[in-house]
Amino acid sequence: MSKVLRSVLTGVGGYLPETVVTNDDLAKFVDTSDEWIRERTGIHKRHKIADDQGVSDLATEAAKRALAAAGRTAAEVDLIVVATTTADLTFPSVASMVQRKIGAPIGIAFDVQAVCSGFVFALSVADGFTARGLSKCALVIGAEAMTRLMDWEDRGTCILFGDGAGAVVVEPGEGKGDNTDKGLLGFSLKCDGTKQDLLYVDGGPSTTGTVGKLRMQGNQVFKHAVVNISQAVLDAAEAANIDVADVDWFIPHQANQRILAGVAHRLGIDENKVIQTVAEHANTSAASIPLAMDQAVRDGRIKPGQLLLMEAMGGGLTWGACVVRL
């Protein structure tokens, strides 16, 4: 069997802003309650970015921690891909800011915009570089300041989101070309632009000239999420030539406890295999998967050699899944 290059995840890091906002904190200025939020979403609290922070600051901290975990330095980084929908500025990219802030040399740096699916999309983009030998040390980062997009009078959405960043270091590694290899083994990525009105932000530089606020038809998003994500998971597993039952850990986008449970049930995945951080982090969009992975690696649940399955769905509607052997 001929040898192939794989995109291997060699380090993971996460960063959460210091300010914690509990459900009771929200209830002081939003018509809601801790019980109402917990019952409908499973969320207990979320982290909120400081007034003097930008999302590039969150991304930079996560990147530094991922590099330390991988035993790499910023001087070795030649590719930075940041998944975000809440950039510091309309331009330049958050990735270029991270490059400057960590002191990485001139290389490739750009952002990916697929909202909550962004991290899975960004990993697939980085794979196009590392698995072709075009990058020796890549940073793939999901970073969001979703609280900056909230309409605090819309209790159906403002309770759902939080801020944070997660990052992984991706390096080329030699494999045999089968499902025992380390690295990214299979993907499934989709978008259905006809569903835009289900989840979007009502502003932008070429229309309103404003940032806008997040708008969502929650019930419709839930319906599409369970069906679409489940199919993407099956497609990614098929692309990787594995059975879903063989997966050691399922790392879903942390949107809502009901969606997590619905997808796991539909796929027959044991709930004990599901990494869940939605209660502590809420929905951090593109940051949620790497943040959940970081927590599970640090607490010892995820170990080298294990098979991971990640999935997400976000505005667009976009959705996707990928299979990784750590």
Record the strand order, biggest sheet.
1-7-6-4-5
CATH superfamily of the largest domain: Thiolase/Chalcone synthase
For the termini, the CA-CA separation is 22 Å
Q: How helical, in percent, are the residues?
A: 25-40%
Overall mean pLDDT: 97
Beta-strand segment tally = 13
Count of discrete domains: 2
The percent range for strand residues is: 25-35%
CATH structural class of the largest domain: Alpha Beta
CATH architecture of the largest domain: 3-Layer(aba) Sandwich
- How many helices? 10
Mind summarizing the main beta sheet?
5 strands, mixed
What is the 3D form?
Answer: globular
Features of the shown structure:
5-stranded mixed sheet, 10 helices, Peroxisomal Thiolase, Chain A, domain 1, alpha/beta, globular, 326 residues, 4-stranded mixed sheet, 2 domains, 26% strand, 32% helix
Task: Provide structural commentary.
The chain has ten helices and 13 strands. The protein has about 325 residues and is of the alpha/beta class. Strands 1-7-6-4-5 form a five-stranded mixed beta sheet, with helices on both faces. A four-stranded mixed beta sheet has the order 8-13-12-11. The mean pLDDT is about 95.
